[in-house]
Amino acid sequence: MRKQFTLGIVLLLLCGTIIAQNSIMYRQCNECSNTGLDANDDTQTFTYGASTDYLVELVADDYGPRQNGTDIYDWHGGIDYNSANQSADMGDLILAIHGGTIEGTLVQNYKRLIVQTTNGVQNFGYGHFFVTGGGNNTLPDRSGGCWLMLMTNGSRCIVTVINGTVTAKGPLPGSVIFNGQTYTVSNTIAQGEPIGPTGYSGLTGGAHLHLFSEPDNETSVADNDTKNPLQYVDYTAATYDIQLRKVTNYNNNITESWNGTSYPGSIASPIVVRPVMENEDNNANRYNTLNDINRVELLIKKQYESTYKLIKGITHESDIRVGGRIGETILPDYMYDGALPEIGDLTRQGIRPFAYATFGAHRYDDYYFPNFTPRLHQDTDLPPGTLSYCPMSSRYNDGRYQLKARITDVRNNATDGPVQEFVIDNYKPFIQEVKVNLPNVTEPFYQRYWVCNDNTDCKGMYLTTPGATNNEVALAQIRNGIWINVTASEPLANLTLDIADSNIQDVQAYESFEDGRKWQFVINSQQMSTILGKQSIEFLFYGYDWNNPANHLINLKTADGAQTCVKIPKREDADSWEQDRTTGPDELHFFNPKCGQHGRSSVTEEEPVVVIIPDESCFNYGQGITREVTAASNESASDGAITLHVEGGIEPYRYEWWNGNTTNQATGLAPGNYCVRVYDALCCETQVCIEVPACQKAKLSAQITKTCEGQQNCRRIRVKGFC
Questions:
Q1: How distant, in Å, are the alpha carbons of 158, 351, 615, 685 from that of 186?
Q2: Are the C-beta atoms of residues 169 and 189 closer than 8 Å to each other?
Q3: What phi-psi label fits residue 94: left (phi over 0), alpha (psi between -120 and 50 degrees) or beta?
Q4: What is d(CA 129, CA 148) in angstroms, rounded to the nearest whole number?
Q5: Lowest CB count within 10 Å: 163, 193, 288, 588, which one?
Q6: Confidence bin at 220 (pLDDT 50/70/90)
Q7: CA 186, CA 12: separation in Å to the nearest integer?
Q8: Which stretch of DSSP H or E encloses residue 94?
Q9: 535 and 592 Cβ atoms separated by less than 8 Å
Q10: Which residues contact 311 (CB under 8 A, 6 or more apart)?
Q11: What does the alpha-carbon distance between residue 259 and residue 402 come to, in Å, rounded to a whole number?
């Protein structure tokens, strides 16, 4: 199918300058041929047709590395335009896209001219005038009605004869003698004027214009220094089927679809991005649209994250830039080099070109990235390729990930490929950090977490407690409940909590975050009242890996926390582990409640300790202290008694009577006033003084109750006695 289209400069804003729209056009030479031309016979005349747009299916060779015969990694620095098949367009006049000053060279080999504009718009270069290497040492050279001539100053120019009118253009002003007459050579050109004839580059593709883009004030014309003119001219862009593939044979370029779990993380996973031009017609290694890819990125994110990032390899990020836009450079700078394999490995990346190969062309190029190694250490200051021995120092920790490729064309339009989901699972899971907070309080009063030690003498981890943690809380606050914030080493499918030696079992998480890596548990006020009196509050965590329900938490204990190096099981293959250890509940995390400033220390001083500070009225949270008083039978009898019933504190309670008695009951009391100091388990204390009366001569059976609800030292008194 032949389609005609206009290639023009797009209305773009470049560095504040508006680019006016123009067309890339030519004038067909009616009598020209690539044979039978006599460069010395100026009697041959040629006629030219009207200005005509190039046909899209005769446009070939996108910008970037190309396979050209034996030079399989040649860099193609522009776009090739044909006005006819093969070399039938030899001698057709190429018309200038815009006006300006002519620079460049007309030497023996490739002859290329650049039109530098005077108003700061984009410059274009035109290549392949005449025949490369053909008779350039014996001037004049000729192509149709154009002659390559020596000027009187020794420079070269192009003399063009159209309908008997002679013009001469070249990179330097001066004069030239043609047919015995002297003509002025101009180094300026107007839009639409002929700049030179379509020539032949010496390759098997036939005669064609090689159009390239050139930055301002650049006169060097190396392929890898020129830019892609598609940034500024209209063209029919391709649509792409973007595929992720993996290499199974580098030498023969055999690839297959990339998918699946990425582990073990010490083994590299090669990833190739293949953007395939969709629905493109192939015609003698040319297509009916242009491959306009300027940048290819391989992007990764954890499933719960919102932003994709480039993969970081050993020496490169997963970013290949062809450098076709003005101001851009090729990345990496040694991506193309005929002496090196143009494929990615652990330390490099590159392109294997196929779309415009001389032989065996395909509708795609392959972009090879540095091999993905999930267990690479995140610290880039370490030697390249250093593996992490802990998940928290791995560049890509265990969990669910999403991978996709993004291609950006020379106009800076980005297209994302389909998302590939995969799992990294290189370690057995464990509880990495526990923080205990009061509700709605950011700073924890308990915190412990594991730190990685990748040094050669350890290759494991150790437990640390931040020195800045505030381990003092008010009893009135902690009685209302606590939040237990848990961070696992990787996403877990499930995590539950037990409080050891209590009826608080199988507590489900209030909520979880980061795809199951972070969890929050809530212990309410009723549960707190049952555990605050314990000598030690121990947390037991039960859970298993999201990727494998059989992969339970590592059973870390208190003894592990005392070690300076704890080894972590690392996957060797799907079913075996290095440094394997038992799984089960995490039994490491606990704290010991200790009395604060108003009380005595608890029975243990073992770390970690949480200091709980009571207030003056700590027994008033419940019903206070109830007293039962039995009166003495007479003034001289010693048969009175006092019994205390304490509520509202934290059991167990402790009593100190004046006589050393430590129970809640005093007996054998004579009439009088008796004082006792009462303590709860967290050292809340108060002193109670109680009067024991003597019975009067009349029989007395009375009950006296005194309440003072809402006041300090609230007491209820019951007095009973018989004469």
A1: 10, 42, 99, 107
A2: yes
A3: beta
A4: 9
A5: 163
A6: low
A7: 30
A8: strand 93-95
A9: yes
A10: 298, 299, 300, 317, 318, 369, 370, 372
A11: 11
Q: How far apart are CA 362 and CA 285, in angstroms?
A: 8
* CB contact at 8 A, 415 and 240: yes
Q: Which amino acid is residue 237, in one-letter code?
A: A
The one-letter amino acid at 462: Y
In contact, 292 and 235? CB cutoff 8 Å: yes
Of 597, 620, 482, which is closest to residue 539 (Cα–Cα)? 482
Tokens encoding 415: 């297209």
Tokens of 152: 């009187």
Run of H or E including 512: strand 511-513
Beta bridge partners of 463: 450
175/166 Cα distance (integer angstroms): 13
Q: Which of 649, 627, 517, 541 is nearest to 589 (CA)?
A: 541
Query: Is residue 652 pLDDT above 90, yes or no?
Result: no
Residues 55/88, Cβ–Cβ less than 8 Å: no
* Burial class of residue 456 (count of CB atoms within 10 Å of its CB; 0-12, 13-18, 19+): exposed
In sequence order, which residues have a C-beta less than 8 Å from that of residue 442 and are 6 or more positions away? Answer: none
Q: What b/e sequence results for 175-201 when a residue is b if at least 16 CB atoms lie within 10 Å of its CB, and e otherwise?
A: ebebeeeebebbbebeeebbbbbbbbb
Tens of pLDDT, residues 81-131 = 887 776 778 889 999 998 999 998 887 677 889 998 876 667 899 988 887
CA-wise closest residue to 613 among 629, 597, 602:
597
CB atoms inside a 10 Å sphere around CB 219: 12
Closest CA to 297 of 230, 352, 369, 240: 369
DSSP conformational letter for 388: P
Provide DSSP, 542-567: EEEESS-TT-BPB---HHHHT-S-B-
**How do beta strands 715-720 and 111-116 pair?**
unpaired
CB 676 within 8 A of CB 644: yes
Paired with 30 in beta bridges are: none
Is residue 339 scored above 90 in pLDDT? no
Beta strands in 128-170 (DSSP E): 141-143, 146-150, 156-162, 165-169
Torsion of CA 437, 440, 442, 448, to 10 degrees: 20
Tokens at 124, concatenated: 């274009």
Which of left, alpha, beta for 104 (phi over 0: left; psi -120 to 50: alpha)?
Answer: left
Task: Report the run of H or E that residue 352 belongs to, with start and end.
Answer: strand 350-352
Amino acid letter, 269: S
Which runs of consecutive H residues, i.e. helices, occur in 239-345? none
**pLDDT band at residue 268, thresholds of 50, 70 and 90?**
confident
Q: What global pTM score does this model have? A: 0.82
Residues 142-193: tens digit of each pLDDT: 787 888 889 999 999 999 988 778 999 999 999 999 988 999 999 999 999 9
Strand pairing category for 59-60 and 48-53: unpaired
d(CA 129, CA 145) in angstroms, rounded, equals 12
C-alpha torsion sign, points 602, 608, 613, 619: negative
Cis peptide before 418 (omega within 30 of 0): no
Give Cα 108 to chain centroid, integer Å: 51
Contacts of residue 305, Cβ cutoff 8 Å, sequence gap at least 6: none
* Structure-block tokens of residue 522: 């809530």
Peptide bond into 264 cis (omega under 30): yes
**Residue in 687, 666, 674 with CA at minimum distance from that of residue 619:** 687
Q: With contact defined as beta carbons under 8 Å apart, do 170 and 157 qualify?
A: yes
- Report residue 483 as tokens: 């939040």
Question: Is pLDDT at 468 greater than 60 in this prediction?
Answer: no
pLDDT of residue 401 exceeding 50: yes
Residue 441 predicted with pLDDT over 80: yes
